[in-house]
């Protein structure tokens, strides 16, 4: 390689490179004069230039015209899907060299760090819709690698609704608000969507996932991500292998409950966005490991499904995950529009070592993303927008177009050329030129679907069979909500009939909940080779950590300040935090002296915004709480949502005064520590450390579904 070429191709990328690259574009207003866009200092910005104090505004007021014109043009089209989202910067660290499988530069050495930008999103809602709606979540990652940008544009669900991209506009038109009245917002619970589902049995598997707890994640930091489509790894020798990508959150996979999700949508529509940014600000950097399932080409046809069918998973029990690195999100964007709104992902953005397969959903995606950016970002130069610019240098003969920033030097804009010395010139594979995988393809031009794509139910059944009882119950309730909102009884019937193919019992339960006829039991059309895949159940993915969980402490004047203090200290040691919630904001008097600062009043928060609740002792405080409807409701609601609840000393009496039932409380015979299905109480506290450990375990468990069976408490 010539010295000149080496210089042209070699860049050093580290985890901070992209943030440094963006610095060139940051604007700092501190200590600056207000100017026009032309850099002219403005002397007056509150009054337009007029002909006389009461006269008309003059056209020559260039500052007024510029200010208004820019404002009038501030909006750009929102994304057709995934409009509502949030993003963060971070880096990816490779654990071990993957050179045997891929030449992707960011996977070549252990310890190699590559900067990334990640955007999380809901799919259906408009840009201003609520975060906690039932939906799939987008998980899109842009790796700024030495060899160019690589985009892994995934979701938190490993399969998709449809098998062929030509159906995407139909799918999206059916799930978006109905065209006559633009209702409902950010919801699939309406006739057109379920009409679409009933006509497309290939939806069955994805619907099972969306209606499971996966459709209402607790946090973007507590959900998995999946590349969904099957991709290809290609190594230096040109050998290809199929690959499936998985992101696995270090905090485990956790969800909300549906009643809670709906309430949060009103109390804090920015819940997931806030959660992500607060966690980053507090130093709880979200972490996800990257797992891959690698499949030899010779094994392509060894499965009981087609690897090219995006409605299928490759069960981890059949092809285990290999964990190859970790993503850490370390900083918020500086400007939401410039970074999160303008970032443009595209599954066709690949780097040498990563290639496509003939998955017909993926093939269509390769076209659609670039196409949509042309209208959304207003022209072909959106790759020059700072957040989209690769760190790898780019040189080509593409020219001009709206908002061109690059000043291309030289006379030639064509290839081959002699006037420009032949540059820029194509690179060989050794020089990191992208060489498409040489796959043999033959066939007739035909609009058809392979028979291997026609098994619609076996993996939906596998998913259903892999759920725990509470998870199954949540799915059935979600069907009752979604399909129960469908006005057409005929569509409801078609859905019950369709899902009887997944499991006759499921079909029966759906039918009974939405007042249609119980479908006749049918023999399964095709069975999956596995009866169960334990990897599919969230219940099997609960790590023992309470990092970044939020606890509410209910208190009033006369609270046992020492219990509050001890809890705060111990939570902090475990990376969790708490907020004191009371009738009004201000300072509370402690029972034995001392003061407790109130963080939130019942007006400014709610139990749905916390992971757990603690009621400290203090006779006067607890008597006051018992008479406050908001405090009792707080406990009832947290109990109904199966959250951990703890109380010490007199605090236990608030629990007794609430509507919670079916759990054993301290003081009923036993005055010491009692821990029963997530309710941890100690009427006589004794060892606070021991009490805390029981509470900590209950929080790590996240939700205590075994309480759900009990008759619902009013909340
Ligand atoms: Fe898509 C956005 C994920 C199928 C067409 N998609 C978009 C985003 C994510 C996904 C995460 C948001 C990116 C961002 O944050 O800016 N999409 C998926 C997954 C799919 C999928 C995991 C199934 C494997 N998508 C899919 C198909 C088509 C599209 C089949 C069209 C043929 N997707 C788009 C789009 C969007 C988009 C219209 C809207 C905004 C954008 O691209 O930039 O082009």
UniProtKB/TrEMBL annotation:
Residues 522-541 are annotated as: Disordered. SUPFAM superfamilies: Class I glutamine amidotransferase-like, Heme-dependent catalase-like. Belongs to the catalase family. Its EC number is 1.11.1.6. It catalyses: 2 H2O2 = O2 + 2 H2O. Gene3D superfamilies: 1.20.1370.20, 3.40.50.880, Catalase core domain (2.40.180.10). Keywords: Heme, Hydrogen peroxide, Iron, Metal-binding, Oxidoreductase, Peroxidase. SMART domains: Catalase (SM01060). It comes from the Archaea. It holds the Pfam family Catalase-rel. This is Catalase. It comes from Methanocella arvoryzae (strain DSM 22066 / NBRC 105507 / MRE50). The keyword Iron applies. InterPro entries: Catalase, Catalase_AS, Catalase_clade2, Catalase_clade2_helical, Catalase_core, Catalase_haem_BS, Catalase_immune_responsive, Catalase_large_C. One of its GO terms (biological process) is hydrogen peroxide catabolic process. One of its GO terms (cellular component) is cytosol. Its cofactor is heme. PROSITE patterns: CATALASE_1, CATALASE_2, CATALASE_3. Residues 35-423 form the Catalase core domain.
């Amino acid at each position: 390689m010539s010295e000149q070429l080496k210089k042209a191709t070699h860049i050093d990328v580290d985890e901070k490179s992209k943030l440094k690259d963006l610095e060139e574009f940051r604007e700092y207003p501190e200590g600056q004069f207000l100017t026009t866009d032309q850099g002219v200092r403005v002397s007056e910005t509150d009054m337009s230039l007029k002909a006389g104090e009461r006269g008309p505004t003059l056209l020559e007021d260039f500052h007024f015209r510029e200010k208004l014109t820019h404002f009038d043009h501030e909006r750009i089209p929102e994304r057709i899907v995934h409009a509502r989202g949030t993003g963060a910067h971070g880096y990816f660290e490779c654990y071990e060299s993957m050179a045997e499988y891929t030449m992707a530069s960011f996977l070549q050495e252990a310890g190699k760090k590559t900067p990334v930008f990640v955007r999380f999103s809901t799919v259906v809602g408009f840009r201003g819709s609520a975060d906690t709606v039932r939906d799939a979540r987008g998980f899109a990652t842009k790796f700024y690698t030495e060899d160019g940008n690589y985009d892994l544009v995934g979701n938190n669900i490993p399969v998709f609704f449809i098998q062929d991209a030509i159906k995407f506009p139909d799918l999206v038109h059916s799930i978006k608000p109905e065209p006559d009245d633009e209702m409902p917002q950010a919801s699939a619970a309406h006739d057109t969507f379920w009409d679409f589902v009933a006509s497309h049995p290939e939806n069955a598997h994805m619907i099972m996932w969306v209606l499971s707890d996966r459709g209402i994640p607790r946090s973007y930091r507590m959900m998995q991500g999946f590349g969904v489509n099957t991709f290809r790894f290609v190594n230096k020798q040109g050998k290809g292998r199929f690959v499936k990508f998985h992101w696995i959150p270090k905090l485990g996979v956790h969800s909300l409950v549906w009643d809670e999700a709906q309430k949060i949508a009103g109390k804090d529509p920015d819940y997931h966005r806030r959660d992500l940014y607060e966690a980053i600000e507090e130093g709880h950097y979200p972490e996800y490991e990257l797992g891959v399932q690698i499949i030899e080409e010779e094994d392509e046809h060894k499965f009981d499904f087609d690897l090219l069918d995006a409605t299928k998973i490759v069960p981890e029990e059949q092809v285990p995950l290999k964990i190859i690195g970790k993503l850490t999100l370390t900083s918020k964007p500086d400007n939401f529009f410039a970074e999160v709104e303008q970032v443009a992902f595209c599954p066709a953005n690949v780097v040498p070592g990563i290639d496509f397969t003939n998955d017909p959903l993926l093939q269509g995606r390769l076209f659609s993303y670039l196409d949509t950016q042309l209208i959304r970002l207003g022209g072909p130069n959106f790759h020059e927008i700072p957040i989209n610019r690769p760190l790898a240098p780019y040189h080509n003969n593409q020219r001009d177009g709206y908002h061109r920033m690059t000043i291309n030097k030289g006379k030639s804009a064509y290839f081959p050329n002699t006037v420009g010395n032949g540059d820029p010139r194509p690179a060989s594979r050794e020089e990191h030129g992208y060489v498409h995988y040489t796959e043999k393809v033959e066939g007739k031009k035909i609009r058809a679907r392979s028979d291997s794509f026609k098994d619609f139910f076996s993996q939906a059944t596998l998913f259903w069979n892999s759920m725990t009882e509470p998870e199954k119950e949540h799915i059935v309730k979600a069907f009752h909500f979604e399909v129960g909102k469908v006005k057409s009884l005929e569509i409801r019937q078609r859905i019950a009939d369709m899902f009887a193919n997944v499991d006759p019992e499921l079909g029966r339960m759906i039918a009974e909940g939405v007042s249609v006829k119980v479908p006749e039991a049918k023999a399964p059309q095709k069975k999956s080779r596995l009866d169960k895949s334990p990897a599919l159940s969230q219940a099997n993915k609960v790590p023992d950590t309470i990092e970044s969980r939020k606890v509410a402490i209910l208190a009033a004047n006369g609270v046992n300040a020492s219990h509050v203090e001890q809890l705060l200290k111990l939570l902090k040691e475990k990376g969790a935090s708490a907020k004191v919630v009371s009738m009004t904001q201000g300072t509370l008097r402690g029972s034995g002296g001392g003061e407790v600062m109130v963080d939130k009043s019942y007006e400014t928060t709610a139990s749905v915004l916390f992971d757990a609740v603690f009621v400290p002792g203090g006779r006067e405080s607890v008597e006051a709480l018992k008479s406050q409807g908001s405090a009792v409701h707080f406990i009832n609601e947290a109990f109904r949502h199966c959250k951990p609840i703890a109380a010490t000393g007199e605090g236990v009496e608030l629990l007794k005064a609430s509507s919670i039932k079916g759990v054993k409380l301290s003081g009923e015979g036993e005055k010491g520590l009692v821990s029963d299905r997530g309710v941890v109480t100690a009427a006589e506290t004794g060892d606070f450390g021991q009490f805390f450990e029981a509470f900590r375990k209950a929080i790590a468990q996240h939700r205590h579904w075994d309480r759900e069976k009990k008759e619902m408490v009013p909340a």
